[in-house]
Give the backbone structure.
Amino acid sequence: MSWSWRYEAADGAVLPPPEGAAQSFPNQADAESWIGETWRELLDGGIHQVVLLDGDHEVYGPMGLSTP
């Protein structure tokens, strides 16, 4: 399986991956590390939440990217 993120608007509408964003990761740790490094840029680009996927299976989310 490959790990990936589903990008969503604040209302949960699915958004296309941002240009230049990594499309898949070999494991969960790499996916989580990547989101930890890029969440601010994603938020600035209009992505408000993400869902972690293992293949087609939702692992967790939606996880908001904005700070309280």
